[in-house]
Amino acid sequence: MTRARDTRKLASAEELADHLGVPLATLYAWNHRGLGPASIKVGRHLRYRWSEVEAWLDSRTTERAA
C-alpha cells in the first residue's frame, strides 16, 4: 500500500496540544499509553504528521442518532 506524501511541516507536541485544546501533559500521557495520534521521535522531540492527526481524529468521531 502506498501512502500519499504529506509535505506539511511536522507539528510539535506544543502545537498539537494547542490545536486540540488539551494540556501538553495530556498529549504526553496519551503518547506514553499509545492512545493519541501516531508520533515520530526526532532526536528527543515528539513530532506529528498532520495527516496522522486527522486520521486519528476521524477514528474518534462519533455519529449521532437522528
Automatic annotation (TrEMBL):
Pfam families assigned: HTH_17
Keywords on record: DNA-binding
InterPro entries xref list: DNA-bd_dom_put_sf (IPR009061), HTH_17 (IPR041657), WH-like_DNA-bd_sf (IPR036388)
The organism's place on the tree of life at top rank: Bacteria
GO MF annotation: an example: DNA binding
SUPFAM superfamilies in UniProt: Putative DNA-binding domain
Residues of the Helix-turn-helix domain: 12-60
Kinase listed as a keyword: no
Descriptive protein name: DNA-binding protein
